[in-house]
Design brief:
By secondary structure, this protein is an alpha/beta fold. Helices cover about 40% and strands about 15% of the residues. The strands form three sheets. Strands 8-9-10-11-13-12 form a six-stranded mixed beta sheet. It has a five-stranded parallel beta sheet with strand order 2-1-3-4-5. The radius of gyration is 22 Å and the shape is globular.
Length: about 450
């Protein structure tokens, strides 16, 4: 099995591994940052009877020339691969389960872990106890952001997790850190939607808590988190935040569904689905997917190792954002904006950073952003786009794939978030091609 290193990939890989264990099948699970030429060669030359690829692979189906390849993925498929294959009829050739093949979106209707879970449940209905991992994978992939709730296939999987007793659904503020961040930081660093006088405004947050006499510490001196506040305190704060949001879409984004993983205690870092997913992401981004898999299997001892990863993750993201701002790295062309972090930001987190920059107020929120970072096999490219453009026709997946091909690279992903690997020194040519393609796709759909 080959799976991706992010939260979606780690949950997908774990679901696949547990499924095969229950079947009594010998197997090996490896995690990869991306499908590279080396990865393709290893898959094609692998001596195992089958290769199960999770949360990766769809964009490269025509490159797999061996039998027994099964792909459960949600990224935009390789258009060169044969069409019409929508069922697993045997393992004489290669097969893929991908929502795009059923006319569904892989950006918000189902993730890689979700597709892997659907296959697992089809193999044995008792595997419903793995549904909560697919929910965590979807949250880690931000699939609940579009409607402030999970929809479509994700909704069906959520119902399985509820039926198994592993997930509870509630309503509340959707900022990250409900159970682990002190309430002041929870408000201050809540990034989407941004609230005037609160987001990135420590003094404003202090004034807000003082206004309603909300104490930051318990009687024993422990810092209170959002879930430690009583319902009345939470209600007045939510009301204050909502009153400062002018746009209805921002108010819908602030309050919506939240998903609790019932297997774990409050404040554990795993009880809240967003915090669970972030823990897995921090493991994968810092070359510790083994710890992430252990956590998915319920090994609470692994949390000690994960805490180190989470601390590193927070520090690196914070320093990356500061580095971009302090060095004025953000550049604008006519249709795109970009920054080149070189070797100053890890390639495994540059996509996260690009998304945060796009929503930070420093960037043009109406323009796609492209980010570069040094990688072992060239230059890693990550691209993010505002939802309003992708809803009207912008497709970053196609742009990354086609622009990368023009400079001898490889790319793909989702319409709203995509990436590529290109040869060192080809950045300028690549940018010019992306600029041309974005201009062609966005004619008449810009919002300003």
């Amino acid at each position: 099995m080959v799976s991706h290193i992010d939260a979606d990939g780690i949950t997908a890989g774990t679901i696949a591994a547990i499924t095969l264990e229950r079947l009594g099948k010998q197997h090996v699970l490896v995690f990869e940052k991306k499908i590279s030429e080396e990865t393709i060669e290893r898959i094609n030359g692998c001596e195992y009877d089958m290769v199960w690829i999770c949360d990766l692979g769809s964009a490269y189906m025509s490159r797999f020339v061996r039998s027994g390849v099964v792909v459960t993925d949600h990224h935009v498929p390789d258009p060169s691969w044969r069409r019409g294959q929508t069922s697993l009829e045997g393992f004489l050739s290669s097969y893929q389960m991908n929502p795009h093949m059923y006319g569904r979106s892989g950006s918000f209707e189902v993730c890689g872990a979700g597709m892997t879970y659907l296959l697992s449940k089809t193999i044995d209905s008792k595997n419903i106890d793995l549904a909560h991992l697919a929910v965590v994978g979807a949250i880690g992939d931000f699939q609940d952001n579009r409607y402030s709730r999970l929809v479509s296939y994700n909704r069906l999987i959520l119902r399985d997790a509820e039926e198994a007793g592993d997930v509870s659904v509630g309503q509340g503020i959707r900022y990250f850190g409900r159970e682990t961040r002190p309430v002041l930081q929870f408000l201050q660093y809540g990034s989407e939607p941004r609230v005037e006088g609160v987001t990135d405004d420590r003094d404003g947050c202090m004034e807000l808590l003082y206004k309603y006499d909300i104490k930051q510490n318990d009687e024993d001196g422990r810092r209170r988190t959002w879930v430690d506040l009583d319902p009345g305190e939470r209600a007045v704060l939510v009301g204050e935040l909502m009153s400062r949001l002018a746009r209805e879409e921002d108010r819908r984004a602030l309050v919506g569904e939240i998903y609790t993983i019932n297997r774990y205690e409050v404040h554990s870092g795993l009880n809240d689905s967003k915090e669970f997913a972030t823990t897995l992401n921090s493991c994968g981004r810092y070359d510790d997917t083994t710890t992430g898999e252990r956590i998915c299997r319920g090994d609470l001892d692994a949390l000690k190792d994960a805490e180190r990863n989470r601390n590193d993750h927070r520090k690196n993201i914070s320093s990356a954002l500061a580095y971009i701002k302090d060095n004025h790295l953000l550049r604008r062309l006519k249709h795109i904006q970009y920054f080149d972090a070189s070797d100053k930001i890890r390639e495994t987190v540059v996509g996260i950073v690009a998304g945060m920059v796009l929503n930070s107020g420093e960037a043009d929120a109406d323009m796609p952003i492209v980010a570069f970072a040094s990688a072992d096999d060239g230059v890693k490219v990550s691209a993010r786009a505002p939802r309003i453009l992708t809803d009207r026709g912008l497709d970053l997946s196609r742009i990354m794939k086609d622009a990368a091909a023009t400079v001898g690279g490889m790319g793909g992903g989702h319409i709203v978030a995509a990436g590529a690997t290109i040869p060192e020194g080809s950045e300028q040519t690549f940018l010019e091609e992306v600029e041309r393609m974005v201009a062609a796709q966005t004619q008449g759909i810009r919002t300003s």
